[in-house]
Design goal:
CATH class: Alpha Beta
Structural class: alpha/beta
Distance between the termini: 39 Å
Number of strands: 12
Number of domains: 1
CATH superfamily: NAD(P)-binding Rossmann-like Domain
Shape: globular
Strand content: 15-25%
Oligomer: single chain
CATH architecture: 3-Layer(aba) Sandwich
Length: about 290
């Protein structure tokens, strides 16, 4: 089976390609942004015609949440129209399409974990651009929403906190304690995405590691895991951020993995366990 992964240079795309290439009977091709700009319709057509995939996993996106707020045209061009291009070309070649989406399609005001069937209401340009990308998908396609993604490569919360520990001296680390979500780690996420895409499961799936926390709680666990004191991390409110962030964030965007759970599929484990494993990998690489 031939599989094409867009956004293969990103942290999830990198692990998706590794998971797929390790499977027998899978011929996986990954294209990074430098090789495929999904905003360019002709380039997408040519890439998919060249690979002739049976499955396309569309992981390419512009995920700079605050930058999207100041450049909405680029956000929609990449995240919304780019998805249209990928789906259009996949259809032309009879390929199943799988899109990676985000918890930011919700406003975080429900006061409970979001089900796949809850009505989205994004607060930011990034969230809206990803939602419009979802709406380019057909009923037979797969949409995977996830949140707070961390991998061994790329920019993410885990690597940011470890860098702050290395470079910050004794300065306190301040993180917001009023935004809730589920940390999700790319090795496990990639395995589930690959399975959903290869099985051509239609519809929306929420895929995260289990257990809600705040950015403060997440940072505290990282610091403790690296041998530091939790007291080094100080909770603040979103309104105390200086400078304030341009894009509004959902206050409670925890995703209930209901579609997987109700179908008897194995859920990813508690995020604490996945964090430990990924920190071991980064420690072996000399990052802390």
């Amino acid at each position: 089976m031939r599989v094409l992964v867009t956004g293969a240079g990103g942290q999830l795309g990198h692990d998706l390609l590794a998971v797929l290439q390790a499977r027998d009977g899978i011929d996986a091709t990954g294209l990074a942004h430098s090789e495929l700009d999904v905003a360019d319709r002709r380039s997408v057509e040519d890439a998919i015609a060249g690979v002739r995939p049976e499955v396309v996993i569309h992981a390419a996106a512009w995920t700079a949440v605050d930058a999207c707020e100041s450049d909405p045209d680029r956000a929609y061009q990449v995240n919304s129209l780019g998805t249209r291009h990928v789906v259009e070309a996949a259809r032309a070649h009879g390929a199943h399409a799988c899109l990676i989406s985000t918890d930011y399609v919700f406003d975080g005001m429900a006061g409970r974990a979001y089900l796949e069937w809850d009505e989205p209401h994004p607060l930011s340009v990034y969230g809206r651009s990803k939602l419009w990308g979802e709406r380019e998908m057909g009923p037979e396609d797969t949409i995977v929403r996830t949140s707070w993604v961390c991998g061994a490569d790329g920019s993410n919360m885990l690597r940011t906190v470890l860098r702050m520990l290395r470079e910050g001296g004794d300065r306190p680390l301040r993180f917001v304690d009023d935004q809730w979500g589920c940390p999700t780690f790319t090795p496990g996420l990639a395995s589930v995405v690959a399975a959903l895409a290869l099985e051509r499961r239609p519809g929306i799936y929420h895929v995260t590691h289990q257990g809600p926390t705040t950015w403060y709680g997440f940072a505290s666990e990282i610091v403790a895991g690296a041998g530091g004191s939790r007291d080094r991390v100080e909770p603040i409110s979103t309104s105390d951020l200086d400078p304030p962030r341009p894009a509004p964030r959902p206050a409670y965007s925890v995703l209930d993995n209901a579609a997987m759970r109700l179908q008897g599929m194995d859920l990813l484990e508690d995020w604490h366990d996945a964090l430990v494993r990924l920190m071991v990998v980064l420690h072996e690489r000399g990052e802390w």
